[in-house]
Design goal:
Blueprint (H helix, E strand, L loop, with lengths): L1 H21 L1 H4 L3 H26 L7 H18 L8 H16 L8 H20 L16 E2 L2 E2 L3 H23 L2 H11 L11 H27 L9 H14 L4 H17 L7 H15 L5 H11 L10
Antiparallel strand pairs: 1-2
Length: 324
Amino acid sequence: MNRILQNRNRFAPPVVIVIAALFVPLIITNSYIIHLLNTAMVYLIAVYGLNFISGMAGQTNLGQAGVFGIGAYASALFVTRLDMPAWLGILPAILAGLLIGVILGYPSLRVKGLFLTLTTIAFTEIARLVENNWQLIGGALGVKSVPNFFLFGIEIKTPNQFYYLMIVVVVLFSIITYRIIHSKWGRAFIAVRDNSDAVPSCGINLAQAKITAFTWSSVYGAIAGAIYSQCINYVNASSFTTDLSILFVVMMMFGGLSSMYGLIIGTVIITLLPELLRFLGDYYQLIYALIVMLFAIFLPGGIWSIVKNRQGKNKGGPNHSGVA
């Protein structure tokens, strides 16, 4: 009976969130806001992936935008050049993510800290420059007229249709992410972050754990990029800069590292916040930067840390779980 009650308490909040999300398009009729929410859900998949390597394994990664862009290009080129269904564009993105995971994972075995940060930044810039200058894949013009998804014979072409599709996709990736976090992989990632020197003595292969974390991160990022290409029906290298990588990191830290609820909150708020501050005119970027900076200084654990600390007090002690 206690286990049933615990499972009900654990899964009740996600169910409530999903049900509430289903009614959002009925309340918000502005298609631009719905488009922003669609973008937030696409970004959330990339942030889920980034959390594996940066939030859980503790390895600095500013290359997620590069992975995101390669996934977008791989999918867009596959479906446009070969005239394939949009869904099949996910497959080359997954393959690209697997390859990138290995490419980025092996340097992490030799370098860390600032040097690993520079390595991942260099990866993003190299990917952007190749995409922007290689005429064979469109060059500076990018890839146009990326086809929409079809679901049961229905073309997903309006913001509302894409919104409901993304609800299903996000739920699926949330379940997979939850399973990974609470699997032996997740425990290995956290062990690497907390004490990498002691990891081998626990029977964990340090190299394999780091490469696995990078691979999951890259696969998620590439799939997110593939979905993004269908979201806007256009791919251009100018969208996949280091600024986007930093944005992913801010989303992850703003909500809370290693917490799925925190990642969702951080991604949605950071996506919508610039638009909510537009009324400030030329000062909105300054206020936006100040808000992010103040949260980083006074709430380094992210918004979700407030909830975790309160839960810990209610139970008579601090919450050290690291995941939620």
